[in-house]
Structures are given as structure tokens and as C-alpha cells.
Amino acid sequence: MSFPDGFLWGGATAANQLEGAYLEGGKGLSVQDIMPSGVMGPITLEPTKDNLKLIGVDYYHRYAEDIAMFAELGIKAYRMSIAWSRIFPKGDEEQPNEEGLQFYDRVFAECKKYNIEPVVTLSHYEPPLALCRKYDGWRSREMIQYFAKYAKVVLTRFKDTVKYWITFNEVNVTVISPLLGGGILTPKANLTKQDMYQAAHHQLVASGLVTKMAHEINADFQVGCMVASAPRYPRTCNPDDILKAMEDQQEVSYFVHVHCTGEYPFYAKRIFRDYNICLVITEEDKELLKNTVDFISFSYYNSKTVAQDAGQYQGAGGNLMRGLKNPYLEYSDYNYPLDPKGLRYMLNYFYEHYQKPLFVAENGLGQSDTLISDENGSFTVADDYRIKFLNNHLVQVNEAIEDGVKVIGYTMWSIMDIVSAASAELTKRYGLIYVDRLQDGTGTLKRFKKKSYHWYKKVIETNGESLV
């Protein structure tokens, strides 16, 4: 099998999970800096030393070394994010932080040196903490203006350096985990569906505004949306389970639909009615939503099996998208369903509905890796389980391309080991590059190539022909 010429083979990371240097270079605090246990645990008033994200994997000081390793791997695209609070430390300053802009100047210069295409996410789960405390994150319409100001600065600064932009990472997560997706400090138990969907509306409006702005700054910009995805399978052929799967799928498609058509889908009326939601939508909002995206990007880790009466079935794990145990699938050590064909399904689903180019922005396997010495005395990780996972998913990406789906790129998660966003841990690793940093914070921070690194290098060199 082979992939289209110019296919963007790559890997992905997020600023809050790898940069570290949380107060260096003029950076302000982000909401991530007070989440020492991720969304799994309580937030703190101030950063604490047990928050592994404060150091991350020290990319801020080692980016040149890391990007050189990415280049040796042969990647064509590097999906990354800009830390909003590195540009506007509190979010509401009159002028941006020049030191922060210069850091990304250097990062993009390294990418250009190796002909790596940056794919840049503007907001990846880390709005400035000061804004979140003042406005309770995206619950407030005031966030739109601050996000737009930040976006205008970086879009203008990097207009000749970056072509591909993503407005919000996994924008649908705001209605699943309001703290992670929307920087909302009020506990989810104290929020209504109205609160969460109104916050998501503010993000959708902001996305439309920034998409419009981006195309005005540089007509060649390609701007995309990004959602967390998982196909919803009915647990049985009972019509109640079929309808449950349909309704769950609509809650994801809702966000893609707005980004691609400029209006809310027909089934939004039912969602609003069932949850007693009455969105505040201005005429200006409606106009801004009409600024549709150029491509759809999404994360895919696992499928989700659902049932109307879920209590009678065993549950399964997953990255936010957690459902019931599917008897037809294998499971990872973390109880994630392993479902490569679900990725082909999602690619077909999105393309059938919206006819926009697709970008697989995240796809990977989290496991507890062990660093070992190989026959040459070098250190590596024998992660055949990751190779199998990536191979099987890429085969299904190729199947989707054969189906006629326009897939422009694949940036696996994550190109190197980084701190988990959801749980702030380093035990479960996703990278092709092992970083010597342990859960207790110790380690040399040295980088080592895993077996999967060499495998992926060959996949890229052969444009997918080495897949089996």
C-alpha cells in the first residue's frame, strides 16, 4: 500500500505537556499549572512541585535537540501548540510578551531548517490562569476578545512561517470535561448543561472569528477545527441501543457541523430541549459562525460502545471517550479498546458528511515502557505493542484513502514521551522517543530512540509501503 504524494507524515505534542519552563521567558501561569493531577484530581491555588507539567520534558531548553531527532525520523509535519500564556502572561495585557514570541521564532526556524511543516494549535487546554479566575474560563463571552487578540498577534507574527492552523484542541471536550476543555474552574457537578454548551458556543464563535481573521492575514492559511472522536457502537441490535449510539454520535458531530457549515445542526434543537438549554446567540455570533474551516482534524484512540441500559454491562477504559466492554475487541494494559477499523469508520463518517480534507491529529498507544540496553550497549524500548498499534491504524487510514476519503496528514501521538494532560502522569507513555523522567520527578531527561522510532522512520521513507 502507499499514500498520496505530499502526505503529511508526522507526530504531535502540546506545549503544556512538554515545554516546562512554566515561569521562564516572561510566561504567565496557565490553568494547567494548578492541575497537579490533571482533571483526575483537585486543582490547587498555586503551582505545586508535584505537578510534573511545570518541568514537562524540558523542551523549552532542548527544542533544537528534539527537532533534530524529529528530522532524523523523517517527519514532514509537526503538530504542536503555542502556549497562550507565553504570549499574553495574564491574557489581558496591552502588548504581547516579546520573549515568548521569540521562543516560537526559534522553534519555527528549526522546523524550517529541516523542511518540517508546523501544524499549530492556538489553544490546547491551557488558557491563561488569570483569565480563568476572572471569568471562569469560557463561560464568559469576554474570553472571545482576548483569544482573538492573542490569535491575531501570532497569526501575524508567523504568517510566512506557518501554513496550517487549528483553533481549539478537541473543542467538544468542553461539554465532557469543562475544566480541561474550557478552563472552567467551577466544579462540573455545579454546572448545568446550559453552562457548558454556552461556554462551547463562545469557543465556536471565537473559532469563527479567528478563522475569518486568519484568511484576511494570509489567504494561503489553512485553518482547521479539531475534535476528540470515537465511533459509537450499539452494544446490541436493540433499537434502543441503536438510537443511543445515534444520539451519542450527534453530540460529537454537533461541533464539526458548526465549523463546516456555519450553523447548528437540525438535531441541536432536540439536544437543547432535552437538556433545557437556551443559548444566548447574537446576530454577530451568527455571522461569525459562517466563517467555515478548510479542514477537519481529530484525535482517535478508541471506539466507544454504548447501550440505553448501560448498567447491565461491564465498562471499558479510554481517553475521555469511555464506553462499555466490546466483546469483539482486544484491550490494552490500560483497558482501552483496540479498534483500528474504528479509525477508518470515522474518516469515512466525517468525509461523507462534510466533504472537507481530513487530518488525523492524534492517534497513539499509552503503555508503561521499560528502558533496556540493546546488543550494542545503547538504550532503547522494545515497544512492539506500539508498532502493532500504529501499523494496524495506518493500514486503516490507507483503506479510507482507498475508499475515496481525502486524508492530508497523520500526526501520531506523541512523537516523544510527555506528561499526560488528563492525569499529569509519566507512567503511561505514548512517544517514539523515550525521555528519562520518572513519575517521582527524577531522571536525566536524556532522550532515547524506541524500536517504534526506527519502524516509523521506515514507514515514512517508503510512504507507507512498509506497512503490513
Automatic annotation (TrEMBL):
Cellular compartments per GO CC: cytosol
Pfam families (alphabetical): Glyco_hydro_1
UniProt GO molecular function: beta-glucosidase activity
PROSITE patterns (UniProt xref): GLYCOSYL_HYDROL_F1_2 (PS00653)
GO biological process: carbohydrate catabolic process
Keywords noted in UniProt: Glycosidase, Hydrolase
Protein name in UniProt: 6-phospho-beta-glucosidase
Organism of derivation: Anaerocolumna cellulosilytica
Organism phylogeny: Bacteria, Bacillati, Bacillota, Clostridia, Lachnospirales
